[in-house]
From TrEMBL, chains A, B:
Molecular function terms from GO: NAD+ binding; prephenate dehydrogenase (NAD+) activity; prephenate dehydrogenase (NADP+) activity
Protein's name in the database: prephenate dehydrogenase
Segment forming the signal sequence: none
Enzyme class label: oxidoreductase
EC number: 1.3.1.12
Catalytically driven reaction(s): prephenate + NAD(+) = 3-(4-hydroxyphenyl)pyruvate + CO2 + NADH
Listed Gene3D superfamilies: 6-phosphogluconate dehydrogenase C-terminal like domain (1.10.3660.10), NAD(P)-binding Rossmann-like Domain (3.40.50.720)
Every Prephenate/arogenate dehydrogenase domain range: 3-293
PANTHER family: PREPHENATE DEHYDROGENASE, PREPHENATE DEHYDROGENASE [NADP(+)]
Key word Oxidoreductase present: yes
Keyword match Membrane: no
Pathway the protein acts in: Amino-acid biosynthesis; L-tyrosine biosynthesis; (4-hydroxyphenyl)pyruvate from prephenate (NAD(+) route): step 1/1
Amino acid sequence: MFERLCIIGVGLIGGSIAKAARAEGLCKQVVALGREKNLPNMQRAVELGVIDAFYTDPAQAMAGTDCVIICTPVGSMQAIFEQLKPYWNSQTLYSDAGSTKGSVVEAARAVFGKVPSNFVPAHPIAGAERSGVEAAKVDLYKNRRLILTPLSSTDPRAVDQFNAFWRRIGSSVAIMSVEHHDTVLAATSHLPHILAFALVGMLGRKDEQREIFKYAAGGFRDFSRIASSDPTMWQDICLANKQEIIPLIQQFQAELNQVEHLLQNGDASALFETFSYAKQARQRFLEIFDDPT
Amino acid sequence: MFERLCIIGVGLIGGSIAKAARAEGLCKQVVALGREKNLPNMQRAVELGVIDAFYTDPAQAMAGTDCVIICTPVGSMQAIFEQLKPYWNSQTLYSDAGSTKGSVVEAARAVFGKVPSNFVPAHPIAGAERSGVEAAKVDLYKNRRLILTPLSSTDPRAVDQFNAFWRRIGSSVAIMSVEHHDTVLAATSHLPHILAFALVGMLGRKDEQREIFKYAAGGFRDFSRIASSDPTMWQDICLANKQEIIPLIQQFQAELNQVEHLLQNGDASALFETFSYAKQARQRFLEIFDDPT
């Protein structure tokens, strides 16, 4: 499909895309572009066979590259677009992997005046608690969902190419608006992460005062897994999508107020209904999750 | 150790105790006591080899029984104590597996006037999202923690017996006060369950309006696992321990208010600190969890 794929930010996300693209024969060569401070990581990526070469100079990285996927935290997108702008090539296809789409599109507008028609905003939905190229997996995106959020101005052929690219990698592709993406992911991903960070932090401080972690069970282990997520990535996501997240935090607070109210009043049957409904909802989620069509 | 163990409530928890006790040769016989409506479940327990016999008549269940472990939801404890009272035997040892201890001790006081010296309140900390005897596992408590909360009036020999019983099953045993147990478990278990139930319910209602569950990833799957917990068990736990839980809900809401505030103000570095601290705390939790000494 591509001669040369350039991954910008070859960590868990970018590294896994590189591995998957290679495994599926979607590109002949994979290179990375990064900053000076990323050199050890990019060197490691070569050692691990994730990429063939790496550059800190965008001119060298872009030479002969026909596909670029930006995999850095969403807070860096504007700086990355600035860096690529002098070399932006109408024959090359560009995409990203950011967990928010509105902020990425805004960053592109800020740098280019309008979003380039050969940039297709994308978000591969694959959770992972580990970071860095060492954690990259060839099957991270297999049987997972990918969302593309092309604008009306995006070149349909570019959309088709990335659609095919991700389907070859094994993801099922959904297309939706930037706004809908950010609304949905705020609920299914951003809010849960905030809740996990908040709870684990609160219990962490209690544990420092007096041991409590030793009395937490496997349930807490699973619940808290997403609190191991990369703080930089999540600081960026939360700030980028705060307009969607803040109302959800408020809605969740209302849910908690309701539960507190039921507890105060000893309302057993209402509590049972609440917990029952959640159990059924979770069952419904599992059926959907285990069948990514 | 025992001639005949009687499990009251042979579901996941009681069934797993039965299986583990048998596997470790801790009793010669295992029987169950239950209600009419539990007959199919108890019949299944016999078919699965979890128990040898079952009764709905406490007199028959208690005959020849030298150890009783009550494994029903904590809201039923008072009724169970009432049922056992006419047959309560000073030569028999009694214990439970309830997720709260204060309410269990209160129930015993209400029925007996004071907590019988041969009743040792216990709580095996083992999470599971499935219910019922079909889900019972012989190793559910292996390498897990068990908390005993004897009172000053509890017979030390009874405490020693259950300490040994649970250690043979593979649990590490901690002894603490009833109050400390309920305080700690409110934080490590009860609050997380409430958060999971509240979030999954909230997202479940959104999903009914417009599909969102299909865009949740593996992180949400883990986070929501404890929302599959048994609603009756959790209704009982939350009501029994509401004095500890309500303040924790309020503390958690203060945490969320703080995050909301940071988002409103775009305070990137404070968000980073919050998420970083949680990540480190989770790491500390994992080290403790994976080393139950």
